[in-house]
Amino acid sequence: FALISIFSIPPTFMEKGVLVKSVEQNSSIFNEGLRKGMIITEINNQQIKTIDDYYEAISIFVELAGNETAKLQIKTKTKEIIGLFPKDVADDIVVSKIPKTRIKTGLDLQGGARALVTGENVKLSDKQLDDLIAVVGQRLNVYGLTDVQLRKVSDLSGNNFMLVEIAGSSPSDLEELIAKQGKFEAKIGNETVFSGGSKDITYVGRTGQDAGIYSCDQYQEGHACNFRFTISLSEQAAQRHADITANLTIN
Length: 251
Prior knowledge:
By secondary structure, the chain is α+β, with helices and mostly antiparallel strands. The protein has 3 domains: about 20-95, Roll (Pdz3 Domain); about 110-180, Alpha-Beta Plaits (2-Layer Sandwich), CATH 3.30.70; about 185-245, no CATH class. It contains 7 helices and 15 strands. Strand 10 (about 185-190) and strand 11 form a beta hairpin. The relative contact order is 0.11. Residues about 1-15 and about 105-110 have low confidence and may be disordered. This is PDZ domain-containing protein.
């Protein structure tokens, strides 16, 4: 026979607000008493019922510059916090939907990091944001990451942001994944001939005869074009290229 123990787990689907997943320790908002597990129901007199409501309300801090501060009034089910906070407060708080059940799933057990991304001094159009999400998605897929969510959010001023959520990632890991510039390398076999950057590449052609589309083919879905550009190598990189290619055979 089988012995089965059944425990009652109260549902949470009737609760409104967003769940605080983590708060950066020793941050200004942490020192004011916001803690993991609290449920935020209101920000600056705006009711918070969904994740989109939260990011819309907190987006005023994303737009702050330098040492500017703004008023933040947070109401939770157990505490109210009022004060002037700097730009970083938007990064110090990680929230999620309130789970429909108190049973924890893989994402809840792992934790993770979340970021809002937008253009620097540029207001992204819907098309640009769609392209950004597609490019970042491809980049993250290269690393074989799972439990990654990318989606569009916007604030009351119409500014568009990309929301990135990665389970099992720290904020510093997430920043490196999405903000670090990609590395360009030219290889022959397993040997690197030259790498991107001023050490190996002294000039990159971008206009005129030095760069452009030189052929296009039409397909049913559209066009596929070949693009080429001119680069100049440093003396050391050119010598490395000569040494590596010296013994190559031409078929």
